[in-house]
Design a protein that fits this description.
By secondary structure, this protein is α+β, with helices and mostly antiparallel strands. The protein has seven helices and seven strands; from the N terminus they run βααβββααβααβαβ. It has helices at residues 16-22, 36-47, 96-102, 108-111, 123-129, 132-155, 167-174; strands spanning 2-4, 58-64, 75-79, 86-92, 114-120, 158-159, 181-189. Strands 1-4-3-2-5-7-6 form a seven-stranded antiparallel sheet, sandwiched between helices. α2 runs antiparallel to α6 (132-155) and α5 (123-129) crosses α6 (132-155). Bound molecules: flavin mononucleotide.
Length: 192
């Protein structure tokens, strides 16, 4: 099942400098739904990151809870295609509790309506750059993660970058293809 995302806004209401200044990791989330527009904006921001040699190794997944985003069923969704205009249902069900457990039981993750999981297919970059490409992939995940942090700040939403998790467990919860290795988890929601 494919879902059409909404057009991203290219003009915000706060300055870049303000978002950089105010950005911080926020780990408390209200049980408030996100709108499809907010979800679309966040996906756009993550995808608009630089990529070494335009090799695009990153794969963005969204773990969405039940009644957590307007008009979107609970499940794991994968950003499909080259752009940021579509999501594809990858797995059904509300998997937020399982995801939180896989992240060393950082339970606040289960409170967030949406968690992004940034995974990478290293081979897309290492086939061109060899071992150095591994570092490039990590750098890229950092770019995408920072974009999500700043976009959250600009939208008045909360997020935190999560690097502490069992790779295999996160891959299992999301049923990731074996070449997609999870690197960052970013729960997003309205902050408390
Ligand atoms: C690579 C990386 C991994 C992180 N992993 C976690 C994590 O697993 N859990 C968590 O609560 N915060 C995690 N953080 C967030 C840091 O704790 C946070 O950025 C740091 O305390 C500085 O606070 P600030 O982001 O508010 O400036 C991680 C940050 C980075 C960059």
């Amino acid at each position: 099942m494919r879902l059409k995302l909404e057009e991203a806004e290219k003009r915000g209401t706060v300055s870049l400098e303000e978002t950089i200044e105010k950005r911080k990791s926020r780990r408390s989330f209200k049980r408030t739904k996100l709108t499809k527009k907010q979800l679309s904006q966040l996906i756009w921001s993550a995808v608009k990151a630089p990529s070494a040699g335009a090799t695009y190794p990153l794969e963005l997944y969204a773990v969405i809870g039940e009644e957590c985003v307007d008009d979107i069923d609970a499940g794991v969704y994968r950003r499909s295609g080259r752009g940021y205009s579509e999501l594809e249902m990858h797995k059904k069900g509300d998997l937020r509790d399982e995801l939180a457990i896989a992240c060393l039981s950082q339970t606040f993750i289960a409170d967030a309506p949406v968690s992004f999981v940034i995974a990478a297919e290293y081979e897309r970059t290492t086939r061109r750059y060899g071992g150095r490409g591994v570092g490039y992939v990590y750098i890229e995940v950092g770019h995408a993660g920072q974009n999500i942090y700043l976009q959250c700040e600009a939208l008045g939403l909360a997020t935190v970058a999560i690097g502490a998790f069992y790779d295999d467990e996160v891959a299992k919860v999301l049923s990731l293809p074996k070449e997609h290795k999870p690197i960052y988890v970013m729960p997003v929601g309205v902050g408390v």
